[in-house]
Amino acid sequence: MSEVTLFLDLEGTVLTAEEKDLLKHPFIGGVILFARNTENAEQVATLVASMRSIREELVISIDQEGGRVQRLKKGVTVLPPVKAISKKFSVASEGVIAAKELGYLMAAELRQLDVDLSFAPVLDVDYGRNTVIGNRAFGEDYETVTEISAAYIDGMRSAGMSATGKHFPGHGWADADTHHADAVDGRSFEELWKTDMVPFRQAVDNKLEAMMFAHVLYPECDSSPAGFSNFWLGETLRKKIGFGGIIFSDDLSMKAAHSAGSYAERAGKAIASGCQALLCCNERRGTLDILKYLEASDFKPLQEISSLRGKQWNRDGERLDAARVLANDLLDVAL
Hints:
alpha/beta, 11 helices, six-stranded parallel β-sheet
């Protein structure tokens, strides 16, 4: 019997009556925060505390990569896009050190607010073809992405935060934004295995805690988009690569997910393929439809999601200050 969970998104900066009820639902395992939920760091800490008062075990998450994907900006450091690391440091060892400190800074500032998880890092390669990835990627080749992302993950973990690699098996080649259009990558499995999948494979070897899939179709490999494909989730990620962590869907409200049918059908296909944690964002009707589908099924709530709660860590003020200086320097490079 499959175990599954659904993450809830919120309307504003405080909980509504409906959201307070939804947070009690056993199939709601976490919350994902967006910019509309984040006035400043103090307000986010208060919002998180209000959710903890309802259910302590909820996994509170956010997209806080840096650059154009940073939901919380006031009261924390404005982070550069991670591509700035490889732009500034031509010496690999210097880039690795910088990546570790940037990962630590991002995670530490969130953990101080009791936020458990940032959906990071992006392990895609920037081929200059996909504007939605672009400088969210660590580099323009898989070797750079593999080396620098590993250090970034180490930095996150040193601040008590698990890592989520995205968007498996690689989103950098398909020249479409899956939020608004279908995306297709026509390369062969062998080519993907030797290039785009290398950073993901290395991260799995290093005990990556979670993985998020791309809503990208790879027609030379399978007839279904990756997030609805047992070939990609089950045969490739679980069996061939040996991933043992949590598998997240990408947002089921995205345009590229529409081919899978209704919200309930999208959820069903994702779960059948091996997905454990569902994201349905900016579409409350879709969230409610998925919950009704889960209630009517024989699924059970995913207990393993608690493994992504933030871990204890020792705050290092000097390290944080130095990392903030580094982030500001890298921000200048990015600009």
